[in-house]
Structures are given as structure tokens and as C-alpha cells.
Amino acid sequence: MDGMSNQHITTQKTQETAQGCPTGPLLGRIALVAGATRGAGRAQAVELGRAGATVYVTGRTTRARSSEVGRTTETIEETAELVTAAGGTGIAVPTDHLDEVQVRALVERIDREVGRLDILVNDLWGGEHLVAASVFGKKSWQTPLADGLRILELGARSHVITAALLFPLLIRSDAPLHVEVTDGTARYNRRYRENMYYDLAKNAPIRLAFGLGQELVEYRGAAVAVSPGFLRSEQMLAHFGVSEENWRDAIAQEPAFAIAESPAYLARTVAALAADPDRAKRWNGKSTSSAELAKVYGVTDVDGSQPDAWAYFEDVARGKEGSPEDYR
């Protein structure tokens, strides 16, 4: 896919349509999913592709090298292949979004090949290993400063760099959409998220979406912060020693896992959001969740349910009796 030109992409899509291939509501749209190696990022890239979009997928783990996360089983090349298999056009571009030189090179490439960006999904993170080792059960002053600052780099600084450098391309769209993916909604995150570094990292994308939404108004655009619930990512499944096929076996270890959702749930809701012509009026500057978007757009998870983890966690925090199954 490297070096694919705008003309090449347009010609390819025209040929596919003529051959009777599905078109989809996002046909002709150009998307970038930053942090698409695995989990929600990968799933969103695939669903945008399924809806017909050309999707640039970025991340640090490739078939040649791994990021600090240490997983080699998922790569951005594989994500791009999954996007194409779903009906879109996937283009893998290895990028460390904390490296301004690499992000500027990404911008130049998209500018050269297609000249604009319609959808920017900022799903950068990769800090689970730091959170597990240095955040849970610790006060901020007990967290090694280097780990805390790295959490802020991965969860906040990378998002700022990406938005700052990609927005000049995004505002060329006739209907720009920026999605900030985080952990927790603005409502839920009124609670302290256990540790100062994690709290800052997960609230920063919410404020980014709010602020950038104000700046996108004159461009008829929308910036939205979206949070999955208890996500059954590859890393989470591996943590519990289960797979997507037998994920419920992990409930014995963690009862709250009964409310878990697949990455496809968030991805389907974001694809529906991207296809909504009224999204700017409905969502600009707001913080929402996969569950709320699912209810608005009639989306379900892979098992046909509509899990609402944040409603469950809020009710449990207030002492309300109820089972996770009541919130699916």
C-alpha cells in the first residue's frame, strides 16, 4: 500500500463499485486511526473500512519491531490488511506519535497522496504496563516520577501532538470529525481515577475534544470524546488467560468482567457516528460512551447486547444492588 496515490485510491474504489462491491456510507472518506495496532484502535479502523473508508493506520508495533508494550502478536500491517479485507483500503504507516518528525512525515504523506483528512481518531495509549506496575494501589508520590511522566506522555502529550499537526489536513474536509478515545466519560471521571497521573491522562482527551470542538465550529466539524466500557482487548483477555471465545470464564476471577464489551462495540458506534450527517449538532465538544452511542444509533455488540459498563459502575458506587447482566 505504500506510496498509494489519490488517483490510485479513487480509481480502485471506482472499479470496486463497478464490480458490485459494497460501497458503504463512508466510501470516499479518508480516515486516520492513530494507535490502531490492537484493541479499540484496530477495531475502529476495521469498522471504518467496512463502511467504505480509506484508513491510514498508525502505531509503533510492526512486523519488524515491537513497542514498549511488548506484544508482537498484533501489528499495524495486520490491521491494514483487516481493513482491506473488510471492504475498505487499509494503509499502514509506522508512527510514534510522540516523535514530531515522524508525525510530520505522516502529515506530508497523507497530504501528498490524498490532500485532506475527513476523520481523525486519536486512540493513542499503550501505558497499561505502567499503570499495572506504578499506579494501582499507589499514591501519586509513590509512583516513580519517570513512570508518571511517561503515562502523561502516552495518554496526553501524544494526543496533543497528533491533533496539532493533523488538524490542518482535517479542516480541509467538508465535514471534519475528530474522535478522542479515552477511559471514562466526563460524568464518570468526576470521580478521582485513583492516581494523579492516570486521572490527568484520561481526562485530558475529554478536555481536548471540548476545546477542539469549539475551534471546529466554523468548519462545520465535530470533536467528540468517546470511551469504551470494560474493554475485552487482546491484552485484557491475555491478562485473564482467556480468549474472545471463552471470555466469560474470566468472570470467576473478576465478577465485574461480566459487563465487558468487545472492541467491535466501540468501533461500530464510532462508525455510526462518522456516518451521521447531524453529528456536529448532536455531539460536538461532548463526552460520550460506546453505550450511549449504541442506544442512539441502534448498535449492538457482537453478542447482540448493549452493555453499559459506566452505568453499572456508577450504580455500584452508589450502593445499588444489581448484577452486571442487568446492564447488558
Please name the defining characteristics of this protein:
seven-stranded parallel β-sheet; single chain; disordered N terminus; globular; 328 residues; 12 helices; alpha/beta
How would you describe this protein?
- It is a single chain.
- This protein has 328 residues and is of the alpha/beta class.
- It contains twelve helices and seven strands.
- A seven-stranded parallel sheet has the order 3-2-1-4-5-6-7, with helices on both faces.
- Strand 1, helix 2 (39-50) and strand 2 (54-59) form a beta-alpha-beta unit.
- Helix 2 (39-50) crosses helix 9, helix 4 runs parallel beside helix 6 (145-170) and helix 6 packs parallel to helix 7 (196-216).
- The longest helix is centred in the middle third of the chain and has 26 residues, at 145-170.
- Mean pLDDT is 92; it is low at 1-20.
